[in-house]
Write a structure and sequence with these properties.
The chain has 130 residues and is α+β, with helices and mostly antiparallel strands. It has a single domain, classed as Cation efflux protein, cytoplasmic domain (Alpha-Beta Plaits, 2-Layer Sandwich). The strands form two sheets. Strands 4, 5, 6 and 7 form a four-stranded mixed beta sheet that branches. The chain has a three-stranded antiparallel beta sheet with strand order 1-2-3. Helix 1 crosses helix 3. The longest helix is centred in the last third of the chain and has 20 residues. It is elongated.
Length: 130
């Protein structure tokens, strides 16, 4: 985005804080991780064929070496580049591959457009068909 610079934000203790977006206006805009998760969830649920977000087990997350998702979404943000894992339930009778590809495309587009962040990957895991 022209005139906008993003930066990682850290607390004095070194813990990660909400992502900061600096603009030419005075001050900083901070976007919480929960906002990113909400964008991902809302976008995925708008895709025809996606019924709901799914939960996954701790074991599945450990096998994939990923953080435990909350409400079907796990996010990783490094240097203001987002990677996300989505766990979804799709409708019976839909083309699962097409639904998954549509989710990937729309989620990446939404993150880029709404918060101006670069998206490294959008991984979609179909957990069930209902």
């Amino acid at each position: 985005m022209p005139g906008i610079r993003q930066q990682a934000a850290y607390s004095p203790s070194g813990r990660r804080r909400p992502m900061a977006i600096e603009s030419q206006a005075p001050g900083v805009v901070r976007v919480a991780r929960q906002v990113l998760s909400t964008i991902v969830t809302n976008t995925a649920l708008q895709i025809p064929g996606v019924l709901r977000m799914a939960q996954t087990s701790d074991q599945w997350s450990r096998l994939l070496n990923r953080e435990m998702p909350r409400q079907g979404v796990a996010l990783t943000v490094r240097d203001n580049v987002v990677s996300t894992d989505l766990y979804i339930v799709v409708a019976s009778g839909v083309n699962i591959v097409e639904v998954g590809a549509a989710v990937q495309e729309e989620v990446a587009s939404a993150l880029e457009e709404m918060v101006g962040m670069q998206v490294r990957e959008v991984n979609v895991y179909i957990q069930d068909v209902a």
